[in-house]
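Lab notebook, bench 4. Still working through the backlog of constructs that have no structural model yet. Next entry is a single chain of 390 residues. Request: give me the structure tokens for it.
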Amino acid sequence: MNIGVDIRSLMIKNRTGVGEYNFELLNAVFKLDKNNQYFLFYNSYKNLDKILPKWDQPNVHYAGAQFPNKIFNLAIAGKILRLNRLLPKKIDCWYSPNINFCCLDKNIKHVITIHDLSFEIFPEFYTFKQRLWHWFTKPKKQCQQAETIIVPSENTRRDLVQYYQIDEQKIKVIYPGISEIFNRPPTGQDKTIVQKKYNLPENFILFLGSIEPRKNILGLISAFEKLPSQLTDKYYLIIAGASGWKNHPIYEKATKSKLKNQIKFLGYISDTDKPNLYALAKLFVFPSFYEGFGFPIIEAMKIGTPVITSNRSSLPEVSRSSAYLIEPNNIGSLILGIKTLLENRPLREKYSERGHQLASTYSWNDHARAWLKEILFLSENTTDQIDKIS
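Model written out:
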């Protein structure tokens, strides 16, 4: 079977979100599948040899184009270009790891992963340019035309049915895994190196994620400001993650806060530093308004850091009973959660143990096997391969 794979999400050096998902999925798939042929498509005018991941095996082929991006996207949107025709061989199906400009010949079966519909449910959290981009990419039409839609949670499945009227039968829920980098427990020496690298205090509450409105960082800063003085005298608030969009009010609030000297932004965190950063935190707080899955809460749990997160969207589903849930629109709820866990060590330890056990159940190998089955089901001649990966 010849499979086209969109790897445009891997064209940036500092991968986040979708890029990490695409890398981990393909890495696991290529370990399992040495038979089917994969054609990895990307488009860039620049040389990406130092950025794109290297999978050196006979059934993995790179297919790069060098169109100016704006012209390329307009040609795709106008159906002038068909992505499958840019590959060196005829393919049986095309896999999109996220919404992007996509146009295929009608006989090509399209499998797409939809991580969430936050842009439909909370358009106010996005810039005008981003909303325009979603309008041009036509995500609803792509979903309606796709052969199979893969989602990371039941919550995203429900959203697709509600907002796009998609037939439930073609939506497949496959929970993602967690990177192997979190399997090795951080050592004291590793933690010390990271602590010195970022000039971290001894006691801190951690947030890690893109700095954008949807993550409810404004609410987190407000809650931190209103904690009892015996806690704010001891703890700092560390906010880590790449700068997203519409985040000027977030930085401004932190700068003008009465506790500004105890609020620190770290910026983008490399994968190698993440486990140690989680391990150093006394508490991980992720009060997002909406998530399709919520990788950071599972990463923190794997390290054993107690987690506070929202009772909205997929977060209760993904965290199950292993995180302390708060109402993200209620600052009082967030204050109570932080105060309760910081002052109750046995409760922190309980969530730490529960979280670690839960996080260990999320596996990229399992995700890749389930993904492969969905891809192979599209071909009539792969029954024996499906049996082998079952």
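Notes after review: The mean pLDDT is 94. The first helix runs from residue 18 to 32. Flag for follow-up if needed.
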